[in-house]
Every structure is written in C-alpha cells, then in structure tokens.
Design a protein that fits this description.
- This protein has about 525 residues and is mainly α.
- Among the domains are: about 200 residues, no CATH class; about 150 residues, Orthogonal Bundle (Hypothetical protein af1432), CATH 1.10.3210.
- Helix content is about 55%, strand content about 0%.
- The chain has 22 helices and no strands.
- The longest helix is centred in the middle third of the chain and has 35 residues.
- It starts with 5 loop residues before the first helix and ends in an 84-residue tail after the last helix.
- The relative contact order is 0.07.
C-alpha cells in the first residue's frame, strides 16, 4: 500500500470494518443460502465478463438481490465477485477490499430501504405499480451510498475538499443505476414468478446489448487517448530535453481547473490542452530545436510559428474541443506581449490562460541536464510576481492553492541524470584564442553573453535570453541542444529578477521582432552595450 496515502488507507480500513459489522447478523440468523449462493455466483461470473469484455459492471444482479433478500444476505452477494475481480492498478489488495466493502454497504442500504417500504412483499405479489416506489427508493439509496463513499476516498487520496470531491458524482451515477435498477426489478419479479430463476436470467440479454454499446464508447475514448499519446511521444522524440514536460503540464492544468470548480468535462479538455500544448514542435525543423548557439531573428520567427503548427495538427480532432484554442494561444500574455497574435486580457481564451500558467510552473520546477530546478515556492512566487501582466491572477492563485494542498513532484526531464560535480580533465596542450571561442568556463556558464549561474545562455542560447518567467516571449524549442525551452517551459539559468548588461530589467523579447510588427528593442540583448 505504499502508493496509497495514509489518510486513504485509514478511510478504507474504516469502510471495511463497517462492512463486516453489517454482515455479522448472518452468523446467528437463518438466511436463504441457495438464492444467496446463486446470485453471488452469477454476480461474480457476470462481473468478470462485464469488466473484461464490456468495461461495465453487473449491478442488476446486486439490485435483484437487494429486492429479494434480507439486508445482511443481500450485502453478501457482491463479496466474492468483488474480491476475485481483476484489478488494473496497484496495490491490488486494498483496492479489492475497498471495492468489496463499498458494494457490501451499498447493497445493504438498498435492501434495507426496500424492506422498510414493503418492497419484498410487493415483489412477491407482483404488485404493479406499487413495486416501483420501493425499488426506486432502493436505487437512490444505493446510488447515494456509492457516491458518498467514492467522494470520501477521493477527498482522502487527492486531498480535495469534500464538496469538490462529491461534485457531480451523484448525477453521473444515477442514470446508469436507474437502468440497472429496472433490470434488477424485472429479475426479482420473474424470480418470484412461477417461471423461476431461469426466466430471470433472460433479463440480462438486453443488458448485454447496453454493455456492448458502452464498451464501444470506452474503446473510442481509448482511441482518443492513444492518439494523444502518439502525438506527445513524437514531440518527445524530436525534443528529448523536455520529455515528460507535456504530461506534467496536463496534470498542472487539471489541478488549476479543479481548483476553479470547472466541471469534469472541462477538466478533461484542459488535461488534453496541457498535454498537447507543444505539439506544434513537430512542424519546427529539428536543427533549430537542437541548435547549439544563438538563434537568428529569422530562426526565432520560425520557432514562434509552433502554436499555429500545433493548431493545424489538432484542428481536425473534434473531441479536443477548447483544447485547440489553448494549443494556439498558450504563448499569449495579458499585456499583449505574447505571440502569435498579441492578444490581450479577455481576448485570450480561458483554457490558454490555464495552460500558460501550468507551462511556466513546470518549466521552472523541472531539473534538466543543463540547470537545476527552482524550488516550488520560488516558482510560485515568480508566477505571482508576473500575475496581471503576463499570467491570469485567477489561474496563478488557483495553482498556488492546489499545490499547497496536493504538493508537486518535479522530475528530471532530460535524457541524462541531473548535473553533478564535473570530473576534472587534463589541460589541453594548446590554448585556443579567446577572441574566436569562449573558454570552457565561459562556455559552461555564460555562452558569451555575461549571464550568471548554471545554464545561462546568450540571446538565443539557453533560456533564449529570457531573464524571468514572465518577461519576454521565448518560443518553444529553445536555442541550443542543451537549452530548448518554450514560453513558459524551462527558464534555464535565468535570473528571477534578472537585469540586462546595463543593469536594467529585461522585460521584452530578446533579439526577436514580433511577426508582422516592427523590431521590438525593449529588453533585447542586442540593444544593450
């Protein structure tokens, strides 16, 4: 259970204890063991088939048991199937225990409500339509218990407020369970009829059709995910120094969206947007992404086309929705200094503002082969300093709150381990002229521009001349083989509040005129002494 948070483990343990308490009456009271055994075996077999073939669940059998059996006996029906069901994620044992305990409590609650309202007598006498009211109440109780327990485990495992963890769960659960409840009621009525349990099994045939349709939906979603993974993998192969960056930007975008209270559909769209935000690098020549030296203005303009390339790539993928606008506009800035169109304020789509903050945050907190990561508090402070001018303050504050509650785990994103102390090398027999090539010390630390610290670059070198997370508009792809970054990607070796060669804060793009506009000289290194 090392991957399960301690709070979640304690929560699961409490739920398991409650489930065992509800099953205790079976040790002293008689139970209809033949019906219980048949329903439990049917549920176990059906659950295995449903999960493997149809990506669904076998709730009709559970609800039929709730309509036919006393609460303790009905609660025992899901236990064998839940404990034997395959588990995709690790650790398997606590997940099986959680699933079993959740279904035991939910089925017990449904059977209890159904019995209190006289449902079992109505089922036995086939008393329509009076049988519908107890059955509907039982389905509501079953849905409510599952929702409460699911929200609780989400709150414990993901450190979410209960209100946010429960938001939308009940309504999403109610629709499918209403259909399953109707099928379970038909099974129960036929079970008590002269035709017996064999006739009740016929009800499952139309359910298999619905499961097949649902499985097609899941396969379509899986195909969508595979499409996105293929695009991201292609970007990672082309620009290996930002490997893993896209996935983390997607995760940070989800954290911001959830903190802002967005619905699950928009959260998913923003995850796609974060993952695909740099897919336009596929349209940028590899020699520019891996260039070991300053970028020329023409090369910089080519790299600044990557948002439009990305938009062209994803334009025909309809399920991405708003994510396409985020791919196009995630380098825009609130003050209009971004690219490709120089949008301002509210002109920038909300998904793009979310991804811009997530992109910059992961860039500053990622360790790469040419520089060390900034501490998370320093990166958040930098985003807050730039809020209002370059980043949306709402998105920044949402990320600050989410990170404070959930934490953030930076990662090494280069193909090699983080930098260590260099191994001394023997001195070369001859020394190259300093006027033609910088010394080893200059090349390792400054790349010819007088920058300070690990990974500093020249204009177009590492960090592409940007001194601050919010200053300048650095195109994705970067400028050197060791320092390829995007706007908001790794700000390698830049000073948080850096200054240009003359001691002034650099606040604009470095050595890159805006497309379609004149040369912007504010903050350019070429304009310095």
């Amino acid at each position: 259970m090392e991957t399960v948070p301690a709070r979640a483990r304690a929560y699961v343990a409490c739920v398991v204890v409650c489930a065992l308490v509800l099953l205790l009456p079976l040790t002293s009271a008689p139970a209809p063991w033949w019906a219980l055994t048949l329903l439990a075996a049917l549920y176990a077999a059906g659950e295995r088939v449903a999960r493997r073939r149809f990506a669904g669940t076998f709730y009709p059998v559970l609800l039929a048991g709730a309509f036919l059996l006393p609460p303790p006996a009905a609660a025992l029906v899901p236990l064998p199937g839940a404990l034997l069901a395959p588990v995709e994620q690790r650790p398997a044992l606590p997940r099986r225990l959680w699933r079993a305990a959740q279904l035991v409590i939910g089925t017990w609650a449904a059977a209890r409500v159904h019995g209190v309202l006289g449902g079992r007598e109505a089922v036995t006498g086939s008393d329509f339509p009076h049988v519908l009211l107890p059955a509907g109440a039982a389905v509501l109780a079953f849905c409510l218990v599952l929702t409460l327990l699911d929200g609780g485990i989400r709150a414990c495992a993901e450190h979410l407020p209960l209100r946010r963890a429960w938001r939308g769960l009940f309504l999403r659960c109610l629709g499918p369970l209403a259909v399953h409840g109707l099928a379970g009621l038909m099974m129960a009525v036929l079970w008590r009829s002269p035709y017996g349990p064999v006739a009740a099994l016929l009800v499952l045939l139309p359910m298999c059709v619905s499961w097949w349709v649902f499985a097609q939906y899941h396969r379509q979603r899986a195909a969508h995910q595979a499409t996105i993974r293929a695009l991201v993998q292609a970007v990672d192969i082309k620009d290996g120094y930002t490997r893993g960056h896209s996935e983390r930007v997607g995760q940070a975008s989800m954290m911001i969206a959830r903190e802002l209270g967005m619905c699950d559909e928009r959260v998913e769209v923003l995850r796609f947007a974060g993952i695909l935000h740099d897919v336009g690098k596929l349209g940028v020549p590899t020699r520019l992404l891996r260039k070991n030296g300053p970028l020329t203005p023409e090369e910089r303009r080519v790299i600044e086309l990557h948002p439009e390339y990305g938009h062209d790539i994803v334009r025909g993928i309809s399920f991405l929705g708003e994510a396409r606008s985020a791919v196009l506009h995630h380098h825009e800035r609130l003050d209009g200094s971004g690219y490709p169109y120089g949008l301002r304020g509210g002109q920038i789509p909300e998904p793009a503002r979310v991804v811009a903050v997530a992109d910059a945050f992961d860039a500053m907190t990622s360790t790469r082969s040419y520089s060390r990561a900034r501490p998370v508090p320093a990166a958040l402070a930098e985003l807050q300093r730039c809020a209002g001018s370059h980043f949306d303050p709402r998105m920044v504050e949402a990320l600050v709150r989410a990170v404070a509650r959930q934490g953030w785990h930076p990662a090494v994103t280069a193909d090699e381990p983080p930098p260590t102390l260099p191994t001394p090398r023997p001195a070369p027999p001859t020394r190259e002229p300093t006027g033609d090539r910088p010394s080893a010390r200059e090349g390792a630390g400054r790349r010819g521009d007088g920058g300070r610290g690990a990974g500093r670059g020249s204009a177009g070198g590492r960090g592409i001349g940007r001194r601050c997370a919010c200053q300048g508009r650095t195109p994705a792809g970067g400028a050197t083989a060791a320092g390829r970054v995007g706007a908001g990607e790794r700000i390698a070796g830049e000073r948080i509040a850096g200054r240009d060669g003359g001691g002034n804060r650099s606040s604009g793009r470095v050595g890159a005129p805006k497309r379609g506009a004149g040369q912007r000289d504010t903050g350019e290194r070429g304009a310095g002494p």
